Amino acid sequence: VPKFKPAKGLRKSGLFDFQIEDLGLYNGEIVLSTRSDSLFFDSINAGLKLVKDRKGWQIQVPAGSLRSLQDSLEIISVQTGLTLKENRIELDSLLLKTNWGNFEVAGKVELGSKPSFDVAVNGEQVVLEDLSKLLPNIKLEGRVDVNSKLSGYLKDFSGESIVNGIFFGRDFRNVKTSWA
């Protein structure tokens, strides 16, 4: 077994730097589970580009799709560019075309002991009845376009939104709302 001399001037990062130009996932499955709940995605198809360097992990997904069987959610198209560094996710953009509406998310998320976020979320033709499936004890009705900014922590956040569309049978036009 050969013995190598240690390189001079390199910092120890715990993982070497690398780049994968084209990584394909076809008909994949992901199960995320906690003690009280689980989330299952199947039919995952995506092309990825991965880079690990001193800036962190850069992930590009130029095209992909997936399906959640529990909630009838089908993500027809997903595109994203993000950077992971230590406990921080910087989301350049996340574009989702779904049977529940189309969404665009950008911003940053801190995953420390008290996770926080500062994101912009835009939705077009959001089907509120379907979105209700993700919100316990909340029943929504209608189809809206929404432009929102959210920041704070999971249990304590604030934001503002502009809503256009039909909400519980009412026609909303440039309705502005904010909360803290």
Describe the structure.
- This protein has about 180 residues and is an all-beta fold.
- The chain contains 1 helix and 10 strands.
- The protein has a 10-stranded antiparallel beta sheet.
- The longest helix is centred in the C-terminal third of the chain and has 4 residues.
- The mean pLDDT is about 85.
The coarse overall form would be: globular
The secondary-structure element order is EEEEEEEHEEE
**CA-CA gap between termini:** 62 Å
What is the percentage of strand-forming residues?
over 45%
Radius of gyration: 20 Å
Q: What class would the helix/strand composition place it in?
A: mainly beta
Please describe the topology of this protein.
Layout: E1 18-33, E2 38-53, E3 56-68, E4 73-85, E5 88-98, E6 101-110, E7 116-127, H1 128-131, E8 142-153, E9 156-167, E10 170-179
Antiparallel strand pairs: 1-2, 2-3, 3-4, 4-5, 5-6, 6-7, 7-8, 8-9, 9-10
Please outline what is shown here.
The chain has one helix at residues 128-131, and strands spanning 18-33, 38-53, 56-68, 73-85, 88-98, 101-110, 116-127, 142-153, 156-167, 170-179. The chain is mostly beta strands. Strands 1-2-3-4-5-6-7-8-9-10 form a 10-stranded antiparallel β-sheet.
Which properties best describe this structure?
mainly beta; 1 helix; ten-stranded antiparallel sheet; single chain; 69% strand; 180 residues
